[in-house]
Amino acid sequence: MSNHKTSIAFCFLIFAFCFFSGCMPAPYYQNVEGIPQNAWAYNFKPSFTFEITDTITTYQPYFIIRHTQAYPYCNLWIWVSVKTPGDSIEKKERINITLAESTGKWMGRGMGEIYEQHMPLNLGDSIRIGRSGTYTVTFEQNMRINPLPEVLNVGLRVEKTGVSK
């Protein structure tokens, strides 16, 4: 009987994976970094590098975070640094990522005690993804606590959003 329950659980996991992965368009680029000891220290600055060759298409970057339900805050302040093609200096912007509703309910997708959220990075007019070349995006946690507990992974996702005008 326990073998039957294991088979049912396995089928449910396969179904859930297919259902959730089918809801999102395929990314142009996606990479996720594990946070050492699940505690994001100030000096751990995950960096992501990708190439843009199609300059007719528009792109939307997303910040990916996976955390446990024991994460102690409803938000996350981060520094986003972007090095664009042809620029020698990174552009840096501080962004607040909301992780929970005012009621305390976690946003994003949850499975068990782990939650994942993809937040659009609206970086303003000074940082545009669309020129041909290599881009490097670096994330740095900017909360008042160091290290920041219960953060499992952070990452970058870039999606094609359409044709620019």
Q: Secondary-structure blueprint of this entry?
A:
Layout: H1 2-21, E1 29-34, E2 39-40, E3 47-52, E4 57-68, E5 75-83, E6 91-98, E7 109-111, E8 114-120, E9 133-141, E10 148-149, E11 151-163
Antiparallel strand pairs: 1-11, 2-10, 3-9, 4-8, 4-11, 5-6, 5-9, 7-8
Give your account of this protein's structure:
By secondary structure, this protein is mainly β. The protein has a single domain, classed as Jelly Rolls (Sandwich). It has 1 helix and 11 strands, in the order H-E-E-E-E-E-E-E-E-E-E-E. The longest helix is centred in the N-terminal third of the chain and has 20 residues. It is globular. The relative contact order is 0.32.
Topology order in helix (H) and strand (E) letters: HEEEEEEEEEEE
Return the structural class: mainly beta
Q: What is the approximate shape?
A: globular
CATH topology grouping: Jelly Rolls
Number of helices: 1
Helicity, as a percent range: 10-25%
Number of strands: 11
CATH architecture: Sandwich
Task: Return Rg in Å.
Answer: 18 Å
Q: Uncertain runs with pLDDT below 50, 5 residues or more?
A: 9-22
Order of neighbouring strands in the sheet with most strands: 1-11-4-8-7
Overall tally of structural domains: 1
Largest sheet: 5 strands, antiparallel
Strand content: over 45%
The level-1 CATH class: Mainly Beta
Query: Taking all residues together, what is the mean pLDDT?
Result: 85
* Distance, first to last CA: 60 Å
